[in-house]
Amino acid sequence: MTETHRHSLIEDAQGLAFGATMAAFGIVILTHLGLVTGQTAGLAVLISYATGWAFGPVFFVVNIPFYLIGWLRIGGMFTLKTFAAVAALSGLTMVMPGWVSFAALNPVFGAVLFGFLSGAALLALFRHGASLGGVGIVALMVQDRFGIRAGWVQLGFDAVLFAVALSLRDVQTVAISFLGAVVVNLVIAINHRRDRYVAT
Fold first, then answer.
1. Fewer CB in 10 Å around end: N or C, the chain?
2. CA 119 vs CA 24, 54, 131, 176, 192: distances in Å
3. In this predicted model, what pLDDT tens digit does every residue of 4-53 receive, in sequence order?
4. Where are the domains of the chain?
5. Where in the chain does DSSP place strands (E)?
């Protein structure tokens, strides 16, 4: 079913808060396990692992060039909402490790849990006219222009990113990480469909 109404300010605020918080929780799980992921977050994770810099600031900076693309090709409101979501995620990933801890977390289950959390987070953000920047912006543009689902576009980028990840992580860690990325993108590809709704 096509979305035919705009969300209210309160609905958008709740959607952005939900998306940013669930995505941040997913990143906490991911980095706790030493895993990697795809998309712009994956690039920031790899930079964080390689340099020792905190994920939050790296993720925020990596996204800066994509805001211009989003502003010019999708619109100012989308870009502002995306900026807010990215800023919230960046901040939450810096404080959330002090709020939650894991006595035991199986890496395979953790990867799948990360995938579901991140997929749900991205769906909420897309539904409320935002993304987590970077590849998400490009993926939505491709979906709107060529009809290729955003999840498949992101999965292609992820394949390249994971090939690079092999230089920083062992094969088993990258394989488990890739499982999480596949779950994220399947959630998006199956549930975020242009013929049902579009970001507004």
1. N
2. 12, 23, 11, 17, 10
3. 467 788 888 899 999 999 999 999 999 999 999 888 888 999 999 989 99
4. 37-96+104-191
5. none
